[in-house]
């Protein structure tokens, strides 16, 4: 896989016969207390030395990813639109910069249903972000969460549940990665012998969790399951030589993993 274009809000890669586009929705700042050790303990004042902080906090990139086969475009996650901090909601600018018309996106699939992944279905002015949307894929375990989102009421009833092991398209397979949320999903995308794992929120803080994957996140619905899924998905990527694409890896969030001691080392592409 190689990079074939980039800008302020996007980076495009050649993945076999597909184009993979990383789309930067923005970033969100979080307190370091979101990080958790065993038994849900915070670090207190003894912060790990490898943590990279911005103004004393954690800055998480927010990325979505698009797969383009030249005919159809499939979007994995949609960003936050104007539903959270004003530092997010730049997905439309990213699409424009990458010369991708929103009308070409007919399939949207969610890794999970937290607001920074789903609220981009609606633009800040209230219009549909993807006017030709025909498939809206939601993890079956999270249909209730999705249907509880009042802002997305117009999409209720249009969603299509999917399960781990299901093929979304001939090139995209859903892999179980529960823990951060009960239906949290990784998508394995394969084309002409090249594979990328679009893994949602497997990692929140790359400066720490690659080296110390046992560290969890306050908002993990099940911290033990999240830890197990992170170790399993990262081991898969390292052992099979897959590329990875992460929602909260530093933009553009695409690279490769290698084992390093008891953890892993990430090399951006």
From TrEMBL:
GO molecular function, one term: hydrolase activity
Ranges for domain Metallo-beta-lactamase: 61-248
Top-level taxon in the UniProt lineage: Bacteria
Keywords, alphabetical: Hydrolase, Metal-binding, Zinc
Coiled-coil parts of chain: none
Family, per entry: Belongs to the metallo-beta-lactamase superfamily.
Descriptive protein name: MBL fold metallo-hydrolase
Annotated organism of origin: Labrys okinawensis
């Amino acid at each position: 896989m190689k990079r074939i274009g980039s800008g302020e809000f996007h980076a495009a890669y050649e993945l076999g016969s597909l184009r993979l586009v990383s789309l930067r929705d923005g970033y969100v700042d979080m307190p370091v207390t979101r990080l958790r050790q065993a038994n849900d303990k915070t670090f207190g004042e003894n912060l790990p030395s490898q943590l990279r902080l911005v103004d004393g906090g954690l800055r998480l990139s927010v990325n979505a990813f698009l797969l383009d086969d030249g005919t159809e475009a499939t979007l994995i996650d949609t960003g936050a639109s104007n539903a959270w901090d004003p530092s997010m909601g730049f997905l439309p600018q990213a699409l424009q910069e990458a010369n991708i018309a929103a009308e070409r996106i007919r399939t949207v699939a969610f890794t999970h249903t937290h607001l920074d992944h789903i609220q981009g279905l609606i633009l800040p002015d209230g219009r549909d972000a993807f006017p030709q949307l025909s498939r809206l894929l939601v993890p079956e375990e999270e249909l209730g969460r999705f249907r509880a989102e009042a802002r997305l009421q117009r999409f209720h009833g249009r969603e299509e549940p999917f399960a781990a092991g299901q093929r979304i398209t001939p090139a995209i397979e859903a892999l179980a990665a529960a823990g951060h949320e009960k239906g949290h999903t990784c998508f394995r995308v394969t084309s002409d012998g090249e594979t990328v794992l679009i893994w949602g929120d497997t990692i929140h803080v790359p400066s720490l969790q690659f080296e110390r994957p046992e560290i969890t996140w306050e908002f993990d619905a099940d911290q033990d399951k999240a830890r197990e899924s992170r170790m399993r998905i990262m081991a898969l990527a390292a052992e099979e030589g897959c590329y990875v694409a992460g929602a909260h890896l530093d933009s553009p969030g695409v690279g490769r993993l290698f084992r390093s001691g008891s953890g892993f080392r990430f090399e951006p592409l």
